[in-house]
User: Which sequence fits this backbone?
């Protein structure tokens, strides 16, 4: 097995947090082999305005100026078409919709997407991207739960795509065969991110194992197979968004009867070697560069030129053990695959 | 709301452990209002012989002699028809099949029930009960996982019932609508236990919350509704088996990347008030005595006479907070519903 060259890997869904946690994890984007990070806006408070997004971007650049940060605003009722125009001018790329933000009504909640149509109209006009967390809220009355929340969301994806056919939409962190099929059935303006961990985990892995617990939860073996298939196929509208989400180690390791553990899996610092390892495991290593760089860059209009492409070289290794924990100041974060072996590593010059 | 009298509650599926843990939890059967415990044999080593079962029964009686302990043997290839006859003579009531014990072959595993047919034949002859942990092992190749492991087991239930029509069989801790329907479709020799916690929890409750994690895992809202319906219906072949399973508090609260938390929910010390609370919550309080005493006793031929019936009185209370933890020696166990309110309590004389 020989070396693999990947041009400028881009992670189109990552959580970089704030304060000390941001200081710890932001450099891990580069450590993991990536030079572009599409940064989630779910801070406290959330990033809802252009000026907040620019200030956050400046914070991240002050931590690691070598990475390109693309910003997305948190969709909320305060977001106006005017703010969209302002955001576009400032270079902000997208708007992220979380289910919680649209579930002010009791049942169904996401029906209220229609209240955002003027915003989406403005986004479509200026060619911004709508990032969808594609789950509807659990509801015992309708037998809606964390395992069918994504399939039940897909009607909303189709409605939005139909109402805004030229609006670029990304269904984030797809976990089900139903989601893969839904995105495939849409036109060229609809894409889909897939995380590293959902290519490996199934429901059995997070049952009683909080370090494998994330939202959306990993689904069934057949769903995982659908994610793998679409990557093997080299479908250009499916690309990496790691959803790498750091949490302090104790909030991952420990529950009390009244407080469960945090949802999130942290893959940033090992992301490119992990992707090579996983894609190799299911026969898709030849699709690595498309999946982790070209496909997403093309959809997001972040294509590389021969001048700005930054090659990252991976080489096969017998066994490279993943760190058990990353520390800085008083923060500690346990990565996915902690202590386990990867068979690829980045050649550092 | 007035008092409720329940004659001699019987828990037809409970884990009482060994050593210090047994000393802590065995008295909780009585504390929870129960005078009969059908005791699981999955100790280390498992209870596979009559003499082991009798010794274990004596250990439990030495801890609390006021409870009647019914014993069941762990099904393994060592169990012979002769041992069945011996067990029957010694008053042992049943044989428990765990999926692991029958999954020596790689795929499907439980096909190998047929190797036990001579044992089942002997059990049928002497009228012992077969207790089934009704799940097949997870297998990614067949898309078998912890959420469909029970429905996929049900063909085995039907095969066993057909092969041994007069063998009394209990499908333990049913969690799905499919299981309820399968048991209903069987003849009078097939019954089903239901736990307290599966009447309350769904998959959303144990995702990231290890104190709600047990096997079989709680399923979907519609499955929970099926369990509640069959109790509301007062179906006499569905009765309580708590599957109360104590684990040391740290093994419930804490995961590491290589070690998940223990599966099991502990309900013994609050069981009768909890059952009243839960059945009241879904409109089945009038079925309480049938579900927690009469139905199971009838199936197990443990009917009460007017002489030996021991009435337990429940009274409604505004709020009775469940203990946050039970301690003894170096053992600590967190009960289900820890710190939460129950609206019924046992009248202690």
Assistant:
């Amino acid at each position: 097995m020989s070396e693999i060259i990947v041009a400028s890997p881009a992670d189109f869904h990552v959580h970089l947090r704030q304060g000390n946690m941001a200081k710890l994890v932001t450099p891990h984007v580069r450590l993991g082999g990536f030079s572009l990070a599409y940064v989630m806006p779910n801070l406290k408070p959330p990033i809802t305005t252009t000026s907040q997004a620019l200030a956050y971007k400046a914070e991240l650049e002050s931590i690691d100026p070598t990475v390109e940060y693309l910003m997305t605003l948190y969709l909320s009722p305060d977001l106006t078409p005017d703010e969209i125009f302002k955001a576009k001018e400032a270079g902000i790329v997208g708007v992220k919709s979380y289910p919680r933000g649209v579930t002010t009504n009791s049942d169904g909640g996401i029906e209220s997407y229609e209240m955002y149509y003027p915003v989406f109209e403005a986004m479509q006009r200026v060619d911004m991207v709508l990032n969808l967390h594609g789950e509807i809220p659990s509801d015992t009355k309708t037998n809606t739960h964390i395992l069918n929340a994504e399939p039940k969301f897909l009607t909303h994806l189709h409605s939005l795509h139909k109402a805004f056919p030229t609006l670029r939409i990304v269904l984030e962190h797809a976990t089900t065969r139903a989601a893969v099929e839904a995105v495939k059935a849409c036109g060229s303006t609809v894409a889909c991110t897939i995380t590293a961990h959902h290519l490996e985990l199934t429901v059995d892995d997070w049952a009683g194992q909080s370090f494998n617990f994330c939202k959306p939860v990993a689904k069934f073996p057949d769903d995982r197979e659908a994610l793998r298939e679409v990557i093997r196929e080299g479908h250009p509208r499916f690309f990496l968004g790691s959803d790498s989400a750091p949490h302090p180690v104790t909030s991952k390791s420990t529950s009390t009867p009244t407080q469960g553990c945090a949802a999130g899996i942290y893959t940033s610092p090992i992301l490119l070697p992990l992707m090579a390892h996983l894609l190799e495991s299911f026969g898709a290593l030849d699709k690595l560069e498309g999946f982790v760089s070209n496909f997403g860059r093309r959809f997001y209009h972040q294509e590389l030129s021969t001048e700005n492409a930054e090659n990252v070289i991976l080489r096969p290794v017998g066994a490279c053990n993943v760190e058990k924990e990353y520390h800085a100041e008083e923060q500690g974060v346990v990565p996915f695959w902690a202590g386990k072996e990867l068979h690829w590593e980045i050649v550092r010059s």
User: Anything to note?
Assistant: Residues 149-163 of chain A form the longest helix (15 residues).
